[in-house]
Amino acid sequence: MAQNEKITIKVCMGSSCYARGNAANLEFIENFIKEHHLEANMEIFGGRCENRCAEGPNVIINGEVCKFASKENLEKVLNKYVTQQV
Q1: What is the C-alpha separation between 17 and 37, in angstroms, rounded?
Q2: What is the mean pLDDT of residues 42-49?
């Protein structure tokens, strides 16, 4: 990925993923973006069901599916992109 290329984050907002933690994950991602001043480099949006309910909650970052998304594993993936943006 080229430096300063926009990173897309899709948060599944289907009822299963939402109930299993994506409401909190969305808040975490938004705070992470603000804390690292990445607003210009990231596009975040909600999506409909990704048909991966058994693996949820799901968050897709630049096409990489984060299954069983939690603050801990989302932070690991997001940190990888932070280092690429510097």
Answers
A1: 27
A2: 92
